[in-house]
User: What shape does this take?
Amino acid sequence: MRRVKLEDLYYAIPEQPIDEKNFDIEKWRRETPMDYLKAIYIMNMADGVAKDVIFKEIYKITRLYIPDVLYKYYSLTDDKKLNSQKFQTLMESKVFLSDVKDFNDPFDGKGYYYDANQLKKFDRLASSGGKLIDDFTSFIKATALTSNGVHSMPMWAHYSNNHTGFCVSYNMKHNMVLSSCTFPVQYTDQRVDVTSLMKQQANMLTSAIEKQSVVGNKKIMIDDLSMVYMTLLLCNLKHVSWSYENEFRCTTGAIAKEMPYIDANPKEIFIGMKCSPEHSKQLTEIAATLNIPVHRMAFNECSAEFDLTTNN
Assistant: This one.
């Protein structure tokens, strides 16, 4: 398989502008899925402040992919303390964001990489084997949402502990904080080599350190946010085998204010068809307190429809 290098990416700029008058956003989403490699390619065409401007425009484009409603599945287990924390977080209209290393996929965040050996030429990195950053995902916290709705049997099985948990819907138009940091996930079968960008960053950082050290400054001010933008965008790459999830990822800085929680007002609660009476009662009470609808998932044994249904 050919190695995909950041500097080798090429995309032709469309010659025809989008017909905004007859713009069908659902059709556009299907035909032009989010491409973060294309986004990085476009940003690398610019320097300095121009990159900031381009990133803002790319961010605006990512907003077009956010559906009106997204869903989050929750598991419930024998861990009473953890269950209680989940119920309390829901009651407080918040969502918990975790470290990416704690996700169920150990390869999450591995959609891009760099060759540390090529950075050994920088004296300040030689002792660390050329490592500029050990783990890009250590700078962020995230949580997963989906556009699959509540009728997805695999989602209930995989993320709600075999239908014993629950699912919550969120109206993204009424959750600006949650919506503003949510991005569509891109599925791929190839990793991208970002060594060229890391070499640029290493050169910039070491040069800045040397210059400031000469005059005795201990603080280094960096105005090139290329690595920040790269991490924020490329952390949304996942292997294509996970594409059934149709994931959207809420991502923030690991040390952002109020972490590890973010405001998220629930729209509806859906109780798994195998959820225990005790947990069902708690979820029903939470829904009543929040004044939102609550439904219980079911399966009609006598119906020709091979699908889950909801009971009020």
User: Anything to note?
Assistant: The mean pLDDT is 90. Residues 195-214 form the longest helix (20 residues). The chain has ten helices and 16 strands.
